[in-house]
Amino acid sequence: FVICNLLSTPCHANEEVDALIDMKNMMQDPHNVLQTWDPSLVDPCTWFHITCDNNGRVSRIDLAHSGLSGTLSPRIGDLPYLQYLDLSDNQLSGPVPKVGSLSRFGHD
């Protein structure tokens, strides 16, 4: 808590960054659409394909038609404010992670 205040970085941003970087690491990205997903850029709201709500929480991920392959990280459940996720027209495989904790998912 103190560290987040000293750095003027919201604590939730670090949790969201960790989840998104794990997601990135589990996918192959031949077209570099995730190049701005950089853990040194601690505000994921500045990353391409990410939209945040008014409180700076990740609310949308739109990676449709991005040429991605691999699997979807179970850490997607660590994005509690996520409302929209579009991964259509990619080559992702494997089980769909549990999203039971995403109480806002599908609500605009």
TrEMBL record:
Compartments reported by the entry: Membrane
Membrane topology type: Single-pass membrane protein
Pfam families: LRR_1, LRRNT_2
Keyword vocabulary terms for this entry: Leucine-rich repeat, Membrane, Repeat, Signal, Transmembrane, Transmembrane helix
Record-annotated Leucine-rich repeat-containing N-terminal plant-type domain positions: 14-53
GO CC terms, sorted: membrane
SUPFAM superfamilies linked to this entry: L domain-like
Protein name per Swiss-Prot or TrEMBL: Leucine-rich repeat-containing N-terminal plant-type domain-containing protein
Organism for this UniProt entry: Taxus chinensis (Chinese yew)
Source lineage: Eukaryota, Viridiplantae, Streptophyta, Embryophyta, Tracheophyta
